[in-house]
Design brief:
alpha+beta; four-stranded antiparallel sheet; 7 helices; globular
Length: about 425
């Protein structure tokens, strides 16, 4: 058995196999294993039967509660619900996966869980929180618990692309400004905010650091291409000489002016940040290439926060968790897999046959193959789909061709 995704709670574990089956084991005192029963513990992986037909894109474990996000954008939760962290409107524990109906119309792309709270990221970049709020980890300017998901007001108007949770704090990343926002418990400085005396934040506060927005770069390989681009943007400009330099993609919308203010440097999690002087030029703020950082990915855990960063010249685009959903590792009939199938069917018939048999025998994998929204596909992927007269026909034809090669009654020279 091959597991492609694993999540761990305080005392339980979730794991998704390559064929799309969810297995759980560990403590089950609150029904966090999703077995429809409550028990002291399960010591071996057991299948969650209630989800066997759903294509799972993400598994998440909180302290004693669990969530999955499906490829179609729905979220199911179960386990401890003492603070309303399952988002179903009450405080009753659930031992069976229960759909988050209040956000069913929002198209959920990512979920993060703290010890007793849950955060959901929608396709549009909205952030909803639910559950325990005694430290402000829900971001609603109160310490109240919420039993139904509520949108974080302070993040409205910003398109969030990443979320993360620690034990009792929450992080959100806005790529257009390059800024990270944090709220909740700050007893160990896990929020990274400017005031070390800030024991907690009830609303999103900007994490201090040399964060700048990512601006896509591209290589210009010849003088003619660069000259054409520069003349198109400014007909009066003189075409510069180009020798394989990296040039900013001028077609990308520039970040707002406030995003270009040089941020403050954060020293350590338990020390207050030291203000750094800004360098300005006549035409605006100038950056120090040794300090300015692009946030690529954010993580939260326990009472810590972690960020993976790069510099602009490395041209590493920040992760968009809403798109990462569509690269889930379960076996599905993706565009890339179709191309691989057609290219390698003759040389790797046995392997391709095994994969096809697994996919066609699983309702979850088939559902995951055909409910993916085209709006999330790249232009290249859409082109592949448009060029093939029928996605399904290509797959079935290949599948049948392989099957016929295995059938003993297949006549010589017959084709599908």
């Amino acid at each position: 058995m091959v597991f492609v995704q694993v999540a761990c709670g305080a005392h339980h574990t979730l794991a998704v196999s390559q064929d799309g089956i969810l297995y759980t084991w560990g403590r089950n005192s609150s029904g966090q294993l999703g077995m429809e029963t409550v028990s002291e513990a399960e010591y071996a992986p057991a299948m969650v039967a209630a989800l066997h037909m759903l294509p799972i894109a993400q598994v998440i474990a909180g302290g004693a509660h669990s969530f999955v996000v499906t490829v179609g954008g729905s979220a199911y939760g179960w386990g401890n619900n003492s603070f309303g962290q399952l988002g179903v409107g009450d405080e009753k524990d659930r031992s069976k996966p229960t759909v988050l109906t209040s956000l069913k119309s929002q198209c959920i792309r990512r979920v993060a869980c703290g010890e007793d709270h849950t955060v959901a990221l929608t396709d549009a970049g909205g952030v909803f929180t639910v559950g325990a709020g005694m430290h402000g980890q829900l971001g609603h300017n109160s310490k109240n618990n919420e039993f139904l998901p509520k949108k974080v007001f302070e993040l409205m108007g910003s398109e969030v692309s990443q979320i993360a949770c620690g034990r009792r704090h929450t992080l959100a990343f806005v790529p257009s400004t390059g800024r990270i926002y944090a709220f909740g418990l700050n007893g160990s400085g896990q929020l990274g905010v400017s005031s070390k005396s800030q024991g907690q934040a009830l609303t999103p506060m900007m994490v201090v650091g040399f964060w700048v927005p990512y601006i896509r770069q591209k290589k210009i390989d010849c003088e003619e291409d660069l000259s054409h681009q520069m003349l198109t943007d400014n007909p009066s400009s003189q075409p510069p000489t180009c020798h394989g330099v990296i040039a900013v993609d001028l077609s990308r919308e520039q970040p707002p002016k406030e995003a270009l203010e040089e941020p403050v440097a954060m020293q350590t999690a338990k020390h207050s940040p030291k203000a750094m002087k800004k360098s300005t030029a006549e035409e605006g703020t100038t950056y120090d290439k040794n300090k300015d950082l692009i946030v690529n990915q954010i993580f939260g855990g326990g009472d810590q926060s972690f960020f993976i960063c790069s510099q602009q010249e490395e041209d590493l685009e920040p992760v968009d968790q809403r798109l990462a959903l569509f690269s889930c590792p379960i076996m599905t009939l993706s565009v890339q897999w179709v191309e691989l199938l057609e290219q390698t069917i003759e040389d790797n018939q046995e392997e391709r046959l095994r994969e096809l048999e697994v996919i066609f025998s699983s309702s979850a994998l088939l559902n995951g193959s055909f409910i993916r929204g085209n709006e999330m596909l790249s232009n290249d992927e859409l082109s592949v789909l448009q060029q093939s007269s029928s996605h399904t026909r290509v797959l079935l034809r290949s599948f049948l061709r392989v099957k016929m090669n295995r059938w003993p009654w297949k006549k010589s020279g017959s084709t599908v």
